[in-house]
Write a structure and sequence with these properties.
Rossmann fold, 5-stranded parallel sheet, single chain, 38% helix, binds 1,3,4-trihydroxy-5-OXO-cyclohexanecarboxylic acid
């Protein structure tokens, strides 16, 4: 099973970016943990990060064209307003799991709405890095 994991803008700055909100572990720590969990679940992962909306759209086109079995996405701030990412997700015929490190339902007003949640198989929020583990577990349970 091949899963594409996409992380949006500013997630590459984890550890330095508002550590009181996002924690002290950095993006490499996240990627390391994802690899370990994926290994435990025997899932092959392609983990990507971009600060550009169009590049994220192109990652999703690749996920479609290369027949990935699912996508895990944390679109970061794009979550709240990117119809381009929503439209690209709608091209996929495989499950998509939305992950947020923080509980966006309890933060600023503008973060409370996700323009992708209604088209995702599952949304996991407020669990920090462990949210990605739960997302991988979702795909493992489909096997
Ligand atoms: C985030 C929440 C978003 O509101 C924010 O813009 C992010 C990260 C999260 O993982 O909690 O960059 O998606």
């Amino acid at each position: 099973m091949n899963i594409m994991i996409i992380n949006g803008p500013n997630l590459d700055m984890l550890g330095m970016r508002q550590p009181e909100i996002y924690g002290k572990e950095d993006y490499d720590d996240l990627c390391y943990k994802i690899d370990e969990w994926a290994n435990d679940y025997d899932i092959s992962v392609d983990v990507r990060q971009s600060n550009y909306e169009g590049e994220i759209v192109e990652f999703l086109h690749e996920a479609f064209e290369d027949d990935f079995d699912g996508v895990i996405i944390n679109p970061a701030a794009y979550t709240h307003y990117s119809y381009a990412i929503r439209d690209a997700l709608l091209i996929l015929n495989v499950p998509v799991v939305e992950v947020h490190l923080t509980d966006i339902s309890k933060r600023d007003e503008f973060r409370r709405h996700s323009v992708i949640s209604d088209i995702c198989a599952k949304t996991i929020m407020g669990k920090g890095f462990e949210g990605y583990k739960e997302a991988l577990e979702f795909f493992f349970n489909l096997l």
